[in-house]
Amino acid sequence: xxxxxxxxxxxxxxxxxxxxxxxxxxxxEAVCPSGVPYGWLMENAxxxxxxxxxxxxxxxxxxxxxLRAALxxxxxxxxxxxxxxxxxxxxxxxxxxxSGLLKLLPGHLAQFESKLPLMGSRFFGPSPRIYSAVGDKxxxxxxxxxxxxPLVQGATMDAAVRVLNRNGxxxxxxxxxxxxxxxxxxxxxxxxxxxxxxKNIDVFLNAGVERIVVASAGCSATMKEYSDxxxxxxxxxxxxxxxxxxxxxxxxxxxSLPWEPPKGQVNRRVxxxxxCHLAHAQGITSQPxxxxxxxxxxxxxxxxxxxxxxxxxGIYSTVQEEMSxxxxxxxxxxxxxxxxxxxxxxxxxxxxxxxxxxxxSGLTGGICHVVDILDExxxxxxxx
Length: 384
Fold this sequence. Notes:
alpha/beta; 22 helices; four-stranded parallel beta sheet; about 50% helix
């Protein structure tokens, strides 16, 4: 990267391909004694690739059809999710796969179809509604709805609201918010990421809240770095800094309150998967575990190399299928060795990737978010 930036090396296809293999998990950044901001460097390196027209055909296609045409437009995302839900739940997907029609699709569309997550039974989204705190109100917070998570894991978003309410927080999900721009930034499309960041900054800073809570580790990591993303924007530089200072991951936030330990039993053996952008980018590892260990009946079994990437990495599993599969296989071996009933994590991308790995491996335990299992424990109180 330094050689390219200094003009000593051109961005060839080989150089670009080398960068494309990076997961951007930021594990190297977490252990670097010099504090090199590798995530930021990688995003800017890929921005140079984009500017010089050296980006791969696969990434260009995904950018055109998804990163630019869909993610910045949540109404399109919701429409697409409705259609996908019909496709998946009405037997159309099984028929299409059985017929062999997917083999006729151009490029990587068949591969992309095989990795589609199962759409949730209900969707979550921004609303004028204010979700009231249970008991005495401690804080008023805004919750990021985001782009993928409310469509695939809407039930987890509902659980996040209930958990925040239970812990004395009045919750707003401001209308007008959008995708955080993480996937665009990671692919080098920094201009689009900046547009998406400005939109969220305006909406959330006008919401009259004390904290911006995020249930997706990848999103919270990016939103905490809006101040870097918009460092050269005179109009938004100060507001971006204020926004970043207000942003907290939900596990980090609950630990800071602190959360109310549940009394309901969840008799289960689980293992925890550290999302890369929670553990490496934000340094949050103890808080999710503390929440899990506070749940009566829950046994937490640590997996080997829990903070090693699962291979999801945004759109990485689509554009780097072979390497993503190798990384996932290592992760699945670590999960299987724990002999636990369920995997718990704190990021929607990890949930999608590991769920596919569990399905392919024949493991039946499933995966959930930290707030899912905490919410389950709270709801179990009325049954005990």
